[in-house]
Amino acid sequence: MSWRLYRPRRIGTYEARIVRRVLQIGAEFPPSPALLASIENLVVRDEGEGGVCCHYDSLDFNTTNERGRIIASAIGSMANDAPIELFVWARGETITALELEPYNGTRLPIRMPILESISRYPEDEVFEDDEE
Question: Which range among 39-43, 47-51, 57-61 shows the weakest confidence by mean pLDDT?
């Protein structure tokens, strides 16, 4: 469950840097200049995910319930060194969400990772596109 914001807000500087980093290192295909340029103008409409208490820092930029598909994924570490997965969703050239998920047994809460910790999945990991 996420929380619809009473007043949508512009994406934060740090959040935008995280989206950009995931796209740069974890995109299935190189992101277009238009897609990268759109990051600074994203509007956060929903925050949180993961149950009643909103234990995830996921961000939803979507005006509809259709997220599209995952276009980039990566692994990062939170301030407590716990690993998390990061997914950028899009519909065409429109980024619709930054999803954060537990990775390898990480416990709640799931918070934004340290930017410098974001990296590709290990070579032996197989990424499956969870299209909705």
Answer: 47-51
